[in-house]
Design a protein that fits this description.
Blueprint lengths: L24 H16 L3 H17 L3 H17 L3 H18 L2 H17 L3 H18 L2 H17 L3 H14 L4 H17 L3 H14 L5 H16 L3 H14 L3 H17 L3 H77 L2 H82 L2 H4 L2 H15 L2 H13 L3 H8 L5 H11 L4 H8 L3 H14 L8 H7 L1
Helix pairs in contact: 1-2, 1-3, 2-3, 2-14, 3-4, 3-5, 4-5, 5-6, 6-7, 7-8, 7-9, 8-9, 9-10, 9-11, 10-11, 11-12, 12-13, 13-14, 14-15, 15-17, 15-18, 15-21, 21-22
Keywords: Coiled coil, Membrane, TPR repeat, Transmembrane, Transmembrane helix
GO molecular function: DNA binding
GO biological process, one term: regulation of DNA-templated transcription
Length: 547
Amino acid sequence: MKIYLFIVFYISIFNFTSALHAQNEIELDSVLFQSLKFQKDRSYRKSIKLLTNLLVESKEQKLYRYQFLALNNLGVNYYSMLDYGEALNNYLEAYKISTEHLNKAEEMTVLNNLAILYFDQGELAKSKGYFLKAYKLAQLKGDDKKIGMYSINLAIVANMNNELDKAIKYLNTADSKLKNYPSIAISSTIARIENLYKRNLIKEANSMALNTLSDLKAEGEEKFNLLLLISDILESEGNLLRSKQYLENALKVSMTPKNKLQVFQKLVKLNKQLKEYDKAFAALDSVIATRDTINNLKNSALFESARVRFEIENYKNELSQNKKSLQLTQSRLRYFIGWSVVILLLIAWALRNSIIKSKQRKIIHNQFKKVITLELEKKENDKIILERQLQNRKTMALLEEERLKNEIESRNRKLATKALQIANRNELIDNIINELTEQKEVLKSKQVTRKIKELKILLKSDNEWKDFMIHFEQVNNGFLKKLKLQHPNLNVNDVRYLCYLYMNLSNKEIASLFNVTQEAIRKRKERVSDKLNLPNSKGLYNYLSSI
């Protein structure tokens, strides 16, 4: 379902000035407007750099509204880059400023954004709390459009929590407030259809969904959600072929890898029910490929976010150094002017008193002192430059370490994906064997019986396990060596089980890879824990992580 995200900005003519000079409000508006243009074009680094400059300048001038705008839109940038932790930090700072220094409009905007962040993380309780706060503030302000939007958001969360009566109340409110906003009201209609479906009013939900679909002309997230919902309704009616058709239509209008993943997962399930196993395998391959795409996008976003933070720190350091350099230049100017006045006075005094020798000695002394001062300043500057170089090297080393860590995690995810693919394949093969062995007519054929035996032998084959171990050791260099060195009493299956557990696979997935029951896997966990001299099996994963 569509959740509404709010980006706060002002529009004015762009006229960016140097960071060395204080900017007035027109110039700050221009910086903000330009940062939002970069954000819309997905040039997040440029947008974040401008917003950081805006934040620094507004803090120096104690302009709380611009501080809020900078922080809120920094949060939106990081949210778009999938760096939810950094987005949360900026939203919370913006929320603090809005409650202490600004009015309710800014407060409810950042509350809604916080709610969306927790919604994406699956923390529905927190998401509901923040949506509710924003909704109440919108009611106090009498803002019909935002009341309607927040009502839809609350109805979506209520549907997910099966609070169906509450959802209807919020949807009734949304419909009454959004009469002049039909493009937003469509989300209310889709949420109402989902509510009917969850109440098991299938015919009403199906009729309303088809009518809405015929009226919905534009492609977009609303149409994707509606097609997905119709597919679920048809599946609940047992009409699997039509359900699959609507899923394929949803795939054509899907806008993001996340949407595609939803469709492929449902296609795997439907093709299994229709016993179209080749198509089920193809859909499963698409699920794996889409997950890899999503993981690659997340890794790229996290790396980009880390690089942005590094550049921002350098940018802040440059601002600080520029200001210090300006202060130092002004101090030196005053120093030289002062000494020039002193020297002129000394010369005038020397000429008046005809003490030429005394004047010369003083001039030499002053010049010598000046040389010493300059040498000391040069050494101090050299020390500062050296410290800055060391700091930059440390920062680059940390960035490289984070890159390597992300690369190892990415390879482990690929290994886990391969293991899950093997598990799903084994489960599908096992289902085929069971279905074939239950049919007596099939077992009469010697050729089919021989193929069944070959499939069973394939399930027990260790060739894929050997290939898996080679890739696992390449990614987690030293893990198996340390494990075998510390615990030589472990057999091959024990080591195999520990590798799967280290990759955080579930008991069900491990059981499928071993071609045994989940109960057997639980018993193996207890036996392995005893071999590792652990007090109980609950601490097994933490122990492996410590290795």
